[in-house]
Predict the structure.
Amino acid sequence: MSNVYELKHPLIQHKLTYIREKTTGPKEFRELVEEITMLMTYEVTKDFPLNEIEIETPVQKTHSKVIFGRKVALVPILRAGLGMVEGILKMIPAAKVGHIGLYRDPDTLLPVEYYCKLPSDLSEREILILDPMLATGGSAEAAIRFIKEKGAGTIKLVCLLAAPEGIAMIHEKHPEIDIFVAAIDEKLNDHGYIVPGLGDAGDRIFGTQ
Ligand code: PRP
Ligand code: URA
């Protein structure tokens, strides 16, 4: 069974409050999404292996650790996942970035794919799927399925808000996937929106509501 890590650091909780607030405009919203994602990267990468190398400080030779043999690919789910890319790239600048385009049909709430472009060496990389919202779980489930079909190695799912329904869907369909979230909210409403949530993440990032 996958693990769900809810990252309750005070800085993350503080910044989440302001992205939930309905008066927060797109500029501040984008900045906060980037900052929260950057803070989450600390926990998402906590299992990265280290190797000891020899270096020379101005004082003497010594051994010190560097991250070893872990290549990363970020896969934001369009559109809203794009808002999370820069925050992780600031910490892992060598990561490659693939894109999966999915939108949720407003009537069926099922994901519809419209774009998929992934790095060719996916199987050698640790994949971080990025989407601010895990609501019914349909979009993240479809993204994980596409990536598995392309022969990916390890996959982690990184979201800002999750509903219990979305977490249950990933547990059921992809039980080995670890999920990292900034907060687990109460439920979904009748339109499949996360409650209390933050509204439509894509619209709030791109100012399109
Ligand atoms: C949102 C969000 C997720 C999806 C979550 O995208 O960014 O991708 O909904 O819902 P689910 O868990 O029920 O699938 P949306 O379909 O609104 O597209 P957008 O990012 O282009 O606005
Ligand atoms: N997609 C969003 O952007 N927000 C939600 O609450 C649910 C799905």
Summary: The two ends are 37 Å apart (CA to CA). The mean pLDDT is 95. The CA atoms of residues 124 and 153 lie 6 Å apart. The first helix runs from residue 10 to 20.
